[in-house]
Amino acid sequence: QGSLLRLMQAVEQVQQGAGPLSGGSHHRHPGSRRQVEAEVVQHGPAHLRGYLLSLTEALSVTTFPVSIGIALVADEIVPVLLGERWVDMIPVLQILGVVGAYQSVTALLTRVLTAVGETRLCMRVAWGTFVVLPASFLIGARFGLTGVAAVWLLV
User: Fold this and answer.
1) Which residue blocks in the chain are alpha helix, DSSP H?
2) Residues 6+ apart with CB under 8 A from 97
3) Half-sphere exposure of 62 (CA within 13 A, CB side)
4) Residues 20/47, Cβ–Cβ less than 8 Å
5) Whole-model pTM over 0.70
6) Cα 122 to Cα 3, 99, 116, 126, 128, distances in angstroms
7) In terms of Cα–Cα distance, which of 153, 114, 118, 117 is closest to 133?
8) Cβ–Cβ < 8 Å for 56, 108
9) For 85, how many CA atoms within 13 A lie in the half-sphere containing its CB?
């Protein structure tokens, strides 16, 4: 819980304009951690925050319609494209469509947190995921692939 709390606090700092990612806009991709630190010192943290927001927006505009669209039309396209044998997979595809939309933008946070030196937080979240997901998948597996997909969505 402590790692999740720190992650949420870091995101909150970005949203409030405080902390290492606060400020305006940046449209270039930061390179190494040293380059990111130089950018923050030279241009202020506003550039890095803007970079994160611009990338998140670009990813959202492209991945959300596709992912959510697949989830919404799965019940119609699966029988047509894959055949009646695959109808049982429709709920799995619908859940994974939502998961795909979420995962497409959350992956950026780890990269930005690493770039600003929050590697311990990233490591703690990774270890927590390493422990929680397998156990959760075992529980979800009792309900078939739909249960496993639901675990992926909820955890």
Assistant:
1) 2-16, 33-43, 45-81, 90-115, 119-141, 144-154
2) 67, 68, 69, 70, 71, 72, 74
3) 7
4) no
5) no
6) 8, 20, 11, 6, 10
7) 153
8) yes
9) 1
- Cα–Cα–Cα angle for 17, 99, 19, nearest 5°? 15
Tokens of 107: 């992956």
Separation of alpha carbons 48 and 69, rounded Å: 31
Distances (CA, A) of 98 to 75, 126, 147, 152: 15, 21, 14, 10
Q: Is 53 a residue whose pLDDT tops 80?
A: yes
Residue 39: both structure tokens together:
């950018």
At residue 101, the pLDDT reads: 92
Mean pLDDT of the chain: 80
Reported as a single tens digit per residue, the pLDDT across 84-139 is 999 999 999 999 999 999 998 888 888 888 877 788 998 999 999 999 999 999 99
Q: Pick the residue with more confidence: 5 or 22? A: 5
Q: How many whole angstroms separate alpha carbon 90 and alpha carbon 79?
A: 9
